[in-house]
Amino acid sequence: MEAERAGDFATAVGSYSAAEKIDPSFAELQFRLGRCHLALANYTESRRHFELARDLDALPFRADTRLNRIIK
């Protein structure tokens, strides 16, 4: 998190990716990876992590990817 706060997004991605190997189902981690990839203009990866974060979010009132596809 310190690397992300300092604007060192490449280092933050490396650290967060290591943490992701331990617990890939942690929504906040996926969100942070999404933000870092967005800052690095890695838009495809950013979107993937943001969607994972949304789908893993424990708040039940948010529509996950499956529901959003049905709605469209």
Helix/strand layout:
Elements: H1 2-5, H2 9-22, H3 27-39, H4 43-56, H5 65-71
Features:
72 residues, 0% strand, 72% helix, 5 helices, mainly alpha, Serine Threonine Protein Phosphatase 5, Tetratricopeptide repeat
Structure in words:
It is a single chain. The chain has helices at 2-5, 9-22, 27-39, 43-56, 65-71. The protein has 72 residues and is mainly α. It has a single domain (2-71), classed as Alpha Horseshoe (Serine Threonine Protein Phosphatase 5, Tetratricopeptide repeat). The N and C termini lie far apart (35 Å). The model has no long low-confidence stretch (mean pLDDT 90).
In total, the number of domains comes to: 1
The chain-level mean pLDDT equals 90
CATH architecture tag? Alpha Horseshoe
Report the end-to-end length measured between terminal Cα atoms.
Answer: 35 Å
Q: CATH H-level name... which superfamily?
A: Tetratricopeptide repeat domain
- Give the fraction of residues assigned to helices: over 70%
Summarize this entry quickly.
The protein is mostly helical.
